[in-house]
Structures are given as structure tokens and as C-alpha cells.
Design brief:
Layout (H helix, E strand, L loop, with lengths): L1 H40 L5 H60 L12 H26 L6 H13 L7 H34 L6 E3 L2 E7 L10 E10 L4 E11 L6 H7 L7 E7 H4 L14 E8 L1
Antiparallel strand pairs: 1-2, 2-5, 3-4, 3-6, 5-6
Helix pairs in contact: 1-2
Length: about 300
């Protein structure tokens, strides 16, 4: 609506400028005619003729300024036309999206699920979300391992087992298929672990680590002359991420005591640096999960980047 109003105002300004230009052109023509008549009547310039020439020059300058302003206003009007057309297209897209969402709700998508209200409903919903998160991670690992998973059939298997314990497949076939799936996943997992170590090697390159043991390699990003002493208090910032940059863990502590009570990887990293230092570690998730708590969504073949700075 604002664009439409601006468009209307600009069009009125353009029309006003056009009328002003027309009037100026008429005045110019009249002055030029008067100048020509004055030249015929008086060969030598008179005061009247000089005045006419001065007026003509001023009017010509005003005419040029009016033309420039007219062009600016016309360009603004054209720009508003384009913005208005884009806004109209965006509004149409928004209506189409709203219709799609409305149809999805009517068709019984998760959007139409009633919000849990009672304590029992909210507890059950939270449990369902927790189970789905962990199951989702396992399904992702299975898919990454190269097993073809069909969502509809998977959902049918889950819901029938949870609802009444029934199965459309006999127990013997279930066991046989599960064994085959397990073999496929193990084969795919070995392949994924191999690829993970390949990515890890690329990140490490030919650099010489400060320390490398139990699957993690430490490198100094900012070296220091003096390392931390036992029980020394420092300010630290730690960030643990996956290879794609997704944050696994991040925290800072302004008064951290360097002692054996720290988590293993944090203690190991701090032992290799000092105040003003920065250090990073690279490892595969499967090699550090016993020493570094990792969330369930992190697969064992994920490359982990451990970053630490000390102040």
C-alpha cells in the first residue's frame, strides 16, 4: 500500500514537472520571438534587448534544471513500478505458500497435532521427542552405511510394534533380515570409518603435532614460552565442532584451576600450552568418545575439531 501511494505521488510530481516544462517551453518561444523582433527593430543592443537576453539565459538554465529533475522523477517512478511488481509477485507466492500449509494441516500432517497440555501429555511428548532424536541418529548412520530405508515402511514398522505388538513379517524372516541388515551396516560402517580417517589426514596434513596419542593430534595455533603449572588458575575458552562446523560443545570459564579434576581432553590440552596460548586437536569421534562426552547425534565416523584458548 505504501509503494502504491509513493507511486501515485511520484506520478503526480512527474505530471506537474511535465506541465512546468510545457510552460517553460512556451515562455522560451515567446522570449526568443521578442528577442528576434527586438533585433529587427534595433540593430544596436538596447537595454530592453539586454534584459530580454538575460531573462532568456535564466529561463534556459531553469528549463535544463527542470528537465534534469523530470528525468530523476521519471527514474524513481520506474523504480517504484518494478518494486511494486516484485511485491505483487511476492504476495502471490505468500498466498500460495499459505494455501500449501493450510492443505498440509488439513491432510493430517504433524502441524495439526494438538499441543500437549496436561503433565502426562507433556511427559509423553518429551519422551517421544527424545526417542525420535536417538532413533533418528541411528537411522542416519544406517542410511550413511548404504542401506536403503523407506520412510513409509519404517514408520509402519514402528507404529504397529508400539501400538499392538503385531508384525506383518514372521519372526524367522525378521531375524534373518535383521542379521543381513546388521552385516550391511557393519560393512558400510567400516567404509565410513575409513573415509573419516581420510578426512582427518587431510586436516592434519604434514604438520608436526605437539602430541599425538589415543587417537587425537594436538597442534599449537599460538605458541607460548611457559606452560601452565599445576593448580594455576586461568581463563579458558573451549569450542568443539564437527567437520561441517556444527557446534558439539562450547563453553568458557574465567577462573579455571588446572588440576587432575578436569575432563581428560581439557586437561591434556591445557598441559600443552600456557597463558596467551591457543591449541587445537583433531580426532575421529570413535577414538575420543570415552574421554570426551559427545551427544548422540554425533556418529563414530565424524571428524572432531577441539579448539582451546587460554588467557
Amino acid at each position: 500500500a505504501q509503494l502504491s501511494q509513493q507511486q501515485s505521488d511520484r506520478q503526480k510530481e512527474v505530471q506537474g514537472l511535465q506541465a512546468k516544462l510545457d510552460t517553460t517551453e512556451k515562455q522560451l518561444a515567446q522570449l526568443q520571438q521578442e528577442k528576434q523582433n527586438a533585433s529587427v527593430k534595433a540593430p544596436t543592443p538596447s537595454d530592453e534587448q539586454k534584459q530580454l537576453q538575460s531573462q532568456l539565459a535564466a529561463l534556459q538554465q531553469q528549463y535544463q534544471q527542470s528537465q534534469q529533475e523530470y528525468e530523476k522523477q521519471r527514474q524513481r517512478a520506474d523504480k517504484l513500478d518494478k518494486e511494486l511488481a516484485q511485491l505483487t509477485q511476492l504476495a502471490s507466492s505468500g498466498k500460495a505458500l499459505a494455501q500449501d500449509v493450510s492443505q498440509a494441516v488439513k491432510s493430517g500432517s504433524p502441524l495439526s497435532f494438538p499441543l500437549p497440555k496436561t503433565e502426562a501429555e507433556r511427559d509423553s511428548y518429551a519422551l517421544g521427542q527424545f526417542l525420535a532424536t536417538n532413533v533418528g541418529t541411528q537411522i542416519k548412520i544406517i542410511k550413511d552405511a548404504g542401506v536403503n530405508i523407506l520412510s513409509d515402511s519404517l514408520n509402519a514398522g514402528l507404529t504397529t510394534r508400539l501400538s499392538d505388538g503385531q508384525s506383518a513379517i514372521g519372526d524367522k524372516e525378521m531375524e534373518a533380515r535383521y542379521r543381513k541388515l546388521d552385516e550391511k551396516v557393519n560393512q558400510g560402517m567400516n567404509m565410513l570409518i575409513g573415509k573419516g580417517y581420510g578426512k582427518l589426514k587431510e586436516k592434519i596434513g604434514n604438520r608436526k603435532p605437539l602430541k599425538q596419542n589415543e587417537g587425537i593430534a594436538w597442534f599449537a595455533l599460538k605458541s607460548v614460552k611457559t606452560r601452565l603449572k599445576a593448580n594455576e588458575t586461568v581463563a579458558v575458552t573451549v569450542k568443539v565442532t564437527a567437520l561441517d562446523g556444527k557446534v558439539i560443545n562450547a563453553f568458557s570459564d574465567e577462573h579455571l584451576a588446572f588440576d587432575q579434576n578436569l575432563p581428560p581432553l581439557l586437561y591434556e590440552a591445557l598441559s600443552l600450552t600456557g597463558k596467551g596460548g591457543e591449541i587445537e586437536g583433531w580426532a575421529l569421534a570413535q577414538d575420543i568418545f570415552e574421554r570426551e562426552p559427545l551427544p548422540g547425534w554425533v556418529p563414530p565416523y565424524e571428524v572432531i575439531h577441539y579448539q582451546l584458548s587460554v588467557k
